[in-house]
């Protein structure tokens, strides 16, 4: 079973995504900010991380930067899911090594298709 980590500080988004990905057959982990992501990555290595940018304590950009420094996480796919739809932010996210950048609001169906595609 493929593992997915959802990192977002909005409860509704977490609930919706968790339901959709469990239904699609994924094992789902949840983090509410970047520091929780890094803590969880000490014990679990997901296949993919859905990462919000604007989170308390540690934002998505800082979190991704930290993930990219760890050898054991180099094959983990990362998709930014963010309300930040400025082309500069999108470019920054992709240049930092994210595999995709999807802006909110988004279609759950398209998001699950994109995740399936990246994890083939």
Automatic annotation (TrEMBL):
Keyword vocabulary terms for this entry: Phosphoprotein
Protein name: Transcriptional regulator
Source taxon at top rank: Bacteria
CDD domains tied to this protein: REC_OmpR
Residues modified as 4-aspartylphosphate: 52
Annotated source species: Kaistella solincola
Lineage of origin: Bacteria, Pseudomonadati, Bacteroidota, Flavobacteriia, Flavobacteriales
Residue ranges constituting the Response regulatory domain according to the UniProt record: 3-119
Pfam families xrefs: Response_reg (PF00072)
């Amino acid at each position: 079973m493929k593992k997915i980590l959802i990192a977002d500080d909005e409860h509704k988004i977490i609930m919706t995504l968790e339901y959709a990905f469990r239904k699609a057959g994924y094992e789902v982990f949840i983090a509410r900010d970047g520091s929780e992501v890094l803590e969880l990555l000490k014990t679990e290595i997901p296949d993919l991380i859905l990462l919000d940018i604007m989170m308390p304590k540690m934002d998505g950009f800082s979190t991704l930067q930290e993930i990219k420094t760890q050898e054991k996480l180099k094959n983990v796919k990362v998709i930014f899911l963010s309300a930040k739809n400025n082309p500069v932010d999108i470019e920054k996210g992709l240049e930092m090594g994210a595999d995709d950048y999807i802006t909110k609001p988004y279609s759950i169906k398209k998001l699950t298709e994109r995740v399936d595609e990246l994890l083939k």
